[in-house]
Amino acid sequence: MGSHHNGDRASSSNGGAALVDKDVDFAQYFCTYAFLYHQKEMLSDRVRMDAYYNAIFQNKHHFHGKVVLDVGTGSGILAIWSAQAGASKVYAVEATKMAEHARTLVKENNLQDVVEVIEGSMEDVTLPEKVDVIISEWMGYFLLRESMFDSVICARDRWLKPSGVMYPSHARMWMAPIRSGLVDQKKGDYDGAMDDWYNFVEDTKTYYGVDMNALTKPFNEEQRKYYLQTAMWQNLHPHQVIGIAAIIKEIDCLTATVNDVLEVRSNFSSSITMENTRLCGFGGWFDVHFRGRKDDLAQQEVELTTAPSVDDGTHWGQQVFLLHPPDRISEGDCLNVSFMMNRSKENHRLMEVEIGYEIRQSSGRSLPTLKNKFYIE
Amino acid sequence: MGSHHNGDRASSSNGGAALVDKDVDFAQYFCTYAFLYHQKEMLSDRVRMDAYYNAIFQNKHHFHGKVVLDVGTGSGILAIWSAQAGASKVYAVEATKMAEHARTLVKENNLQDVVEVIEGSMEDVTLPEKVDVIISEWMGYFLLRESMFDSVICARDRWLKPSGVMYPSHARMWMAPIRSGLVDQKKGDYDGAMDDWYNFVEDTKTYYGVDMNALTKPFNEEQRKYYLQTAMWQNLHPHQVIGIAAIIKEIDCLTATVNDVLEVRSNFSSSITMENTRLCGFGGWFDVHFRGRKDDLAQQEVELTTAPSVDDGTHWGQQVFLLHPPDRISEGDCLNVSFMMNRSKENHRLMEVEIGYEIRQSSGRSLPTLKNKFYIE
């Protein structure tokens, strides 16, 4: 019943993309967060930790004596910090068995009188009261992978007081043209897989009397998708960014609706800043800001960025969309890019992307627009 | 409804292990078989392919003019061979979208008048008639991982004529003591993970004011399970087998019930055959035989074995259960081993294993029994 209900709600509120059945969602998505190893990976991300720590402790006025909700508390870290910053009450909601560990940590750190850990999904739990602050670390790769912000919106609409504050308050998605040796590696892997296939078809016919050539087309599509069209996780070096980065999405966490984040559409231009290089693809990342709200500003604004960095890389890395073949390009050229991203029909937590671009060379000549399909898996 | 029904049937027929919810089962288990890359991996296993090819074509009397059922046809290979061997009709059942590719292959190989591909789970489909032969490649790692034999039993009980034949007809599980450098590698990985954890707890306390020491115990259990207690896939070299291998399970595919395969219990002895070595763990594998039935024997018996081999390794490899720390052991010593395997409570397709052993040294001295828990994931 639950899954059917989810299904109905899905088609009306999820832009046609089916919400994954609840049990399947748990088995595929939530369960990864039940592992301490995964929590530790996020807790070891110093850039992430510093940002949230500073956002809270440099803005105690937002927390002192206030009621806080931590959406997706995981190990409980944000809830614990909120309590240490003086919150009178913290509700820490966590869908997985990690909630038990959060409870343990809360007790060990003597905060059980303030922090109440609730195991359940945000959409299902009931709080005894509305809250002054919603804090959450909901960002997935390239911001929206995992679609966890939906749960934050749900929490906000149900539990945030009219004067309440969102932590973070704002989020942005960025994109820039890049160069990367990965494009040659993936092309090599793909070519190798196809060479291997042709030998396989030959052998299967010779030794086993079965002609598998009819499957070459679907096999090829499967390998193209896997090797060439799936967005890759990378920690890009700033030197790999070959053009001016552009903001492709801006979100006000206080007012955004699920509808606002179902789709990302952006047309932007990017001037190339590197001489004689290759346009190997595009890199995508995000930043979030802790600004408070207009009538209750943060005393100290904090930024958490996942832009390519030498020293301050994060566990999010960037998402890389590779172009095959790469284009020769140089300083003075300009790219006109059309970007579109929406949720996968099969799984609302994954994304489908279309990137089209046109190269305006410094000579004035224009190279035709090509559209490329990608998958954020 | 489907999943609840499965649940009821599960508790009564699955030894207490919950059958995974149908949709979850599809998302976690079946879906991997929908990839051509995975099918190709199995189709490229020459030992596997040769065994089934020879079993069929060296026993055409079992197929000529007969009605055949292929359980879990995948790409359709066994169904196609059955038709080429002269079957009058072949029903090829496949739960995933791979069925569409099987249909394509059947057509391209001009067998659409004989082979009917049916997309659906074996438990749900209805055939127009009973069959003379059930052929299936159902074996998972260490034979029973995936619990696919349940579906073959279901097919047999519903659709096999009283005089029908099973392909394969018999299956056996084997076990032997082994040596392996993997034991040092995994111990190193585990130690490294724990060292890293202790530093992490220190840093989190110092920089972020949160004491995570209370999670050391569960983190340690999680890493022990992952690094030390999870059965590993390996293609063992015969020189790694340091004692006499033993049969720990025998299955007659014509008569076995689901109850017979819910649990594997065996006490066996193994004489050590290598001087001055280390007992690093146990290797497990299986073989199947194509013998026909007593009143309708195969003309040519065929064996498919996954025992450690230099030239004839298979994609199944062996399952390796490592012991920490390894024991010094030598020719003349003898192991008394107790082996127990049953289905995981959370997922009937995965296994939990307990291995206890006692070393009877050639001197007559006996080293105490130790019991070790393992997981086949």
From TrEMBL, chains A, B:
The record's CDD domains line, in alphabetical order, gives:
AdoMet_MTases (cd02440)
Is Methyltransferase tagged as a keyword?
yes
Q: Where is the Protein arginine N-methyltransferase domain?
A: 188-360
What keywords were assigned to this record?
Methyltransferase, S-adenosyl-L-methionine, Transferase
Q: Pfam families, per this entry?
A: PrmA, PRMT_C
Instruction: Tell me if Metal-binding is a UniProt keyword of this record.
Output: no
> Per its UniProt record, what SUPFAM superfamilies does this chain match?
S-adenosyl-L-methionine-dependent methyltransferases
This protein's name: Protein arginine N-methyltransferase domain-containing protein
Organism per entry: Hevea brasiliensis (Para rubber tree)
